[in-house]
């Protein structure tokens, strides 16, 4: 594949993300608290998470291990950061959340599988065949700023995922209003953290594949946050009126 063709694929993928973003503003993805049997067959929530998160990581690692130059430390580091996120999301997070009895529609698992597979392909293909990095990139302002944002985003994402997990005791199935920290400003600081994380990653990578991944992250997580925010307000009449969905003081 030529570099020009590869770039065109990324533009096409971002165009599809824009369409999905508009759809998700109208249609709430039926998993988690929004799960419904109306979307067809369902499988275990935990199994669903594993199946839809693992393909991107595996495909990216295949391209990097099979084709990437061993001398390109920057590309390998970026691939390791991506893998770091998805090891947690695939093999740790699903088994920490208290959703043992919950189900997830197969259509959600399938769509997540395809989403991660394409993103893993685009990033892995870039790292394998088009990396334009040199060792000194580690010390450049762009890489340092991106790394700082990535670490900050990971910390926010993990911290507030952890707070949400511990809101519910083992065996409980209901929901509570989270309080404290960024929860005083937004309903979904964990999702905000993930957007910050992948913004930092895109800055470090400085390529269109990482930008398209960020665009898809925003296209999925912003509507998700808006759906959560609306759900909280519907189910808790005393829900804080000043709290926004995902960006403090904005929306």
Notable characteristics:
251 residues; mainly alpha; two-stranded antiparallel sheet; 2 strands; globular
The number of distinct helices, counting runs of at least 4 residues, comes to: 7
The assigned structural class equals mainly alpha
Strand order of the largest sheet: 1-2
The amount of beta strand, in percent, is under 5%
Q: Regions with pLDDT < 50 over 5+ consecutive residues?
A: none
Task: Describe the protein.
The chain is mostly helical. Helix 4 (106-129) runs antiparallel to helix 7 (208-235). The protein has helices at 3-26, 45-67, 73-92, 106-129, 141-167, 189-205, 208-235, and strands spanning 42-44, 103-105. A two-stranded antiparallel sheet has the order 1-2. The model has no long low-confidence stretch (mean pLDDT 93).
Short description:
With 251 residues, the protein is mainly alpha-helical. Helix content is 65%, strand content 2%. The longest helix has 28 residues.
Secondary structure elements and pairings:
Blueprint: H1 3-26, E1 42-44, H2 45-67, H3 73-92, E2 103-105, H4 106-129, H5 141-167, H6 189-205, H7 208-235
Antiparallel strand pairs: 1-2
Helix pairs in contact: 1-7, 2-3, 2-4, 4-7, 5-6, 6-7
């Amino acid at each position: 594949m030529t570099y020009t063709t590869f770039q065109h694929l990324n533009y096409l993928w971002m165009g599809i993300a824009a369409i999905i973003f508009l759809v998700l503003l109208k249609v709430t993805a039926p998993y988690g608290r929004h799960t419904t049997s109306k979307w067809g067959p369902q499988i275990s929530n935990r199994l669903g998470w594993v199946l839809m998160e693992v393909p991107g990581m595996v495909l990216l690692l295949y391209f990097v291990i099979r084709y990437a130059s061993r001398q390109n430390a920057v590309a390998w580091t970026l691939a390791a950061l991506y893998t770091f996120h998805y090891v947690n999301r695939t093999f740790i997070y699903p088994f920490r959340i208290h959703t043992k009895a919950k189900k997830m529609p197969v259509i959600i698992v399938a769509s997540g599988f395809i989403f991660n597979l394409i993103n893993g392909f685009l990033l892995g293909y870039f790292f394998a065949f088009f990396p334009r990095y040199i060792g000194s990139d580690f010390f450049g302002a762009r890489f340092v700023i991106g790394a700082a944002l990535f670490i900050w985003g990971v910390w926010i994402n993990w911290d507030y995922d952890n707070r949400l997990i511990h809101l519910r005791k083992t065996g409980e199935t209901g929901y509570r209003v989270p309080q404290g920290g960024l929860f005083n400003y937004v309903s979904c600081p964990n999702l905000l953290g993930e957007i910050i994380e992948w913004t930092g990653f895109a800055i470090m990578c400085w390529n269109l594949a990482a930008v398209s991944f960020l665009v898809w992250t925003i296209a999925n997580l912003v509507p998700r946050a808006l759906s959560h925010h609306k759900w909280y307000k519907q189910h808790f009449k005393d829900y804080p009126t000043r709290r926004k969905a995902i960006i403090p003081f904005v929306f």
